[in-house]
């Protein structure tokens, strides 16, 4: 019973993106490990950019500087 937890920042992840992630992750586990789709669980968690840090600062700050 595979369980996959995908964490992404909450920057423009559409319902269609999530559908594709769930579908393709499930397919990959079936193809690579022979796991049946009915027993594969995929959870997508969207994390606010204020709560995601990289290089010692929040992604919010990084994005602001990139737009700068």
TrEMBL record:
The active site is at 2 (proton acceptor). Residues 2-61 form the 4-oxalocrotonate tautomerase-like domain. Pfam families: Tautomerase. It catalyses: (2Z,4E)-2-hydroxyhexa-2,4-dienedioate = (3E)-2-oxohex-3-enedioate. The keyword Isomerase applies. Its EC number is 5.3.2.6. One of its GO terms (molecular function) is isomerase activity. Keywords: Aromatic hydrocarbons catabolism, Isomerase. Coiled coil: none annotated. InterPro entries: 4-OT, 4-OT-like_dom, Tautomerase/MIF_sf. Transmembrane segments: none annotated. It comes from the Bacteria. PANTHER family: 2-HYDROXYMUCONATE TAUTOMERASE, TAUTOMERASE-RELATED. Homohexamer. Belongs to the 4-oxalocrotonate tautomerase family. Catalyzes the ketonization of 2-hydroxymuconate stereoselectively to yield 2-oxo-3-hexenedioate. This is 2-hydroxymuconate tautomerase. It comes from Pseudomonas putida (Arthrobacter siderocapsulatus). The lineage of its organism: Bacteria, Pseudomonadati, Pseudomonadota, Gammaproteobacteria, Pseudomonadales.
